[in-house]
Design a protein that fits this description.
With 555 residues, the protein is α/β, with parallel strands linked by helices. The protein contains 15 helices and 15 strands.
């Protein structure tokens, strides 16, 4: 997960000039380590709109999935059955007021007795399971990147050697080392530069914000204060007006929240250098398993919250936040249960954990699995593919985020890939890119990966408002947010049309996507391209149309 799946604003977007003037770049650009999260609010005071649920025709051209319209016009009074969606992620805040009612409970397991009551191999897995924890209750938070693990393994074997000096049987591995070393070295350099930029930008922003607070005599620079500042000074009023407009357009509730995001981004970058790219760092002994043994199943612990459940909590809320409690936000799916499976650290997930997480979800009844994670090296790819095939046999749909490096996946595969090693397309998996709210050149989130053959469809993933730990709410951006929008759609379809298979769910979601030929900025560039050329369908998902298609006789 780490940077590719929930990213933070770059210093170039968040730098303050002079006293406290926020650059217009705040609202116009995002960078390769994408996305941002805005601050949280209390359950009773939700101000940010869930634009991803709106309808392009009825709601002023906002490019949502027409969920609100679908519930009003197509689903009112219709019977539904509960659907179980597994969230393979970093953890979920199981006490969140908008999630606790919809969480899956393993009724066959007796909580806290230390016994494997249902004989599934996992003791006390009442709410799910963590493959990142140890039997003593400790948990992995930060992990290395896959490049780091490969470098630690291969560098002692091939450093300083030339290809001709390597035995023929080992040259493929030598070539892998050369490729990994190039990627690893680039990431070390990139993160070192980013740390320097984040540190400088945060210091400047913090000083500027404090100066403005003192000038205005306020303790918080929220949008209400900036809109009507307690001053008649024309220069200060001009500054606050500019800040208010920028924050509103960027989806932030206050300047203090921008600073909080910068602090979080700074810590992410520091962690990346100190842990993720550290060749000597290895937290796996915490788990106590044999990492290379992909046949090993029974390890981990019951802690599905984990050290930092922000990402998974947000994902879970997008899918199924309680639609009946009159609090907070609405999930895409109503009659849904959320199973928590912890397998994604801050860093790169391990193939073994992903494979076991898929199997755990399938064996315990999940019908849909959300996978908002990914990486560019998969040394145990066969194990993951075996698990995906197992899910296919059991009629389980997988929904996977495309990634946030504004990369063309037709040129560089990202794992889990949408195709098997033999080139066959995976029939029960959907790969999702991220879109934004306006049908113009900004329709594609500029951090999103894309690919005419490797990305199936786009879904809202920019500034998505959903649940955060501590019964809070806030905006996050990333393809990590787009995937659960689609997983939620699949849950709605399965709930009202339970006879649909995983393959049929995928077909309906893709066939009902609305194609657009809008000229958009290709992610990572200023070049304008046809939106339809960035994915297999050329479209945006739409729940209203998907439900209409589901009503038709199955071919």
């Amino acid at each position: 997960m780490s940077f590719p799946y929930m990213a933070f604003p770059s210093p170039s977007r968040l730098r303050l000039l002079g006293l406290s003037f926020l650059l217009p770049a705040l609202v116009s650009a995002q960078t390769t380590p994408p996305a941002s999260s805005a601050p949280a609010t209390s359950p009773a005071a939700v101000a940010a709109p869930q634009w991803h649920l709106l309808d392009p025709e009825q709601d002023g051209g906002v490019m949502g999935i027409s969920a609100r319209r679908a519930y009003t016009e197509l689903l009112q009074g219709k019977a539904s059955t509960p659907v179980l969606v597994a969230v393979i992620d970093a953890g979920i805040d199981t006490a969140h007021v908008d999630l606790k009612r919809v969480l899956w409970h393993n009724r066959k397991e007796i909580a806290g007795n230390g016994q494997d009551d249902d004989k599934n191999g996992y003791a006390d897995d009442v709410l799910g399971w963590s493959f990142l924890g140890g039997p003593d209750g400790r948990n992995i938070n930060v992990e290395t990147l896959e490049e780091t693990r490969l470098m630690a393994k291969l560098q002692p074997l091939y450093a300083g050697k030339v290809r001709t000096a390597v035995p023929a049987a080992k040259r493929a591995e030598f070539d892998l080392y050369q490729k990994v070393k190039k990627s690893y070295d680039a990431k070390v350099k990139e993160n070192g530069q980013r740390l320097k930029e984040f540190s400088q930008a945060y210091t400047e922003n913090a000083q500027g914000a404090e100066g403005l607070k003192q000038a205005l005599g306020v303790s918080r620079l929220d949008t209400a204060t900036l809109r009507n500042p307690p001053t008649q000074d024309p220069q200060l009023r001009q500054i606050t007006r500019g800040l208010y407009t920028s924050l509103q357009q960027a989806g932030f509730a206050s300047l203090d929240d921008v600073l909080e995001e910068m602090k979080r981004g700074l810590k992410e970058t520091q962690d990346q250098l100190e842990y993720g790219l550290n060749l000597k760092y290895n937290p796996r002994p915490i788990v106590g398993d044999q990492p290379e043994d992909t046949k090993q199943r029974n390890y981990g612990n019951r802690d599905v919250h984990g050290p930092d459940p922000m990402h998974g909590t947000h994902v879970a809320g997008i899918i199924g936040a309680d639609r009946e409690n009159s609090l907070g936000v609405l999930g895409v799916a109503a009659n849904v249960q959320i199973m928590a499976v912890r397998a994604v650290p801050d860093g790169d997930e391990r193939d073994k954990d992903v494979a076991n997480a898929i199997r755990y979800a399938v064996d315990n009844g999940a019908q849909i699995i959300n996978m908002s994670f990914g990486k560019y090296y998969s040394p145990q790819r066969p194990a993951v593919e075996e698990a995906i095939k197992y899910a296919a046999i059991k009629n389980v749909l997988l929904v996977h985020s495309a990634g946030n490096e504004n990369a063309d996946l037709d040129k560089t595969l990202q794992y889990p890939a949408p195709v098997y090693q033999n080139g066959q397309r995976i029939p029960n998996m959907i790969t999702v890119g991220a879109s934004a709210r306006t049908n113009d050149e900004n329709l594609v989130a500029d951090f999103s990966n894309y690919g005419k053959t490797q990305v199936d469809v786009f879904a809202p993933g920019n500034q998505i408002y959903a649940t955060l730990p501590g019964s809070r709410y806030g905006n996050l951006s990333g393809t990590s947010m787009a995937a659960p929008v689609v997983a939620g759609m699949a849950a709605v379809l399965k709930s009202y049309y339970p006879q649909l298979t995983a393959v049929q769910l995928k077909r309906i979601i893709l066939d009902s996507a609305v194609p657009y030929h809008t000229k958009v900025r290709k992610p990572g560039s200023t070049t304008l391209v046809d939106f339809a050329e960035l994915s297999r369908t050329g479209g945006l998902v739409n729940l209203y149309r998907a439900l209409q298609l589901a009503q038709q006789p199955t071919p």
